[in-house]
Amino acid sequence: MLLIADTSVLVNFLNIDRMDLIGKHLPPCVITEHVIAEVTEYYPVQKDRLTQALANGHLELIPVIDDHEVELFGRIQQSGRLGTGESSAIAVALHRGYSLAIDDRRAIKDAASMALERGTQLTILGTRDIVVRLINAGLLSIEQADVLLVSWRTQHRYHLPIRSFS
User: Is the peptide bond before 27 cis (omega within 30 degrees of 0)?
Assistant: First the structure.
């Protein structure tokens, strides 16, 4: 099984230049061309870091070409509630049975609802969950994770409702 990431989780790691952590996470992480387009359009400063992360093998680009995925992607997009990156990640996760890395609350709610309607099990991970998994796997210390937490809060407008990963 793989982990498919939406733009929201990726940007958190791109902002702190720690895509190596995404590369160490198991299961491995994949993204769609729609996520690349969102990063390029809305986070141009992070584009080079994303390109480098792909080149370094920290994540892999997968196409959304299966007819069922394309149809599901289109239905999600028709609602107008979610962006193309979120929509493509959710469509792939639901169709292929991948875990979903996403932080946006509305998208999480919509994805969980769609999975329930389809009778599909969907594992949803946020940035916090990924960091906890890295700690539990011995790939990141609590102290290192807390440095990330402070950086996100003070330099990147991403706030987790915790003071420490301990």
Answer: yes
End-to-end CA distance of the chain: 28
What residues of the chain score a pLDDT lower than 70? Answer: none
pTM of the predicted model over 0.85: yes
The residue among 23, 89, 26, 25 whose CA lies nearest residue 50 is 23
C-alpha–C-alpha distance, residues 28 and 42, integer Å = 25
CB 119 within 8 A of CB 153: no
Total residues found in the chain within this entry = 166
Q: What is the residue-wise DSSP string for 52-109?
A: HHHHTTSSEEE---SHHHHHHHHHHHHTSSS-HHHHHHHHHHHHHT-EEE---HHHHH
Residue 79: its pLDDT value, please? 86
117 Cβ contact list (under 8 Å, min separation 6): none
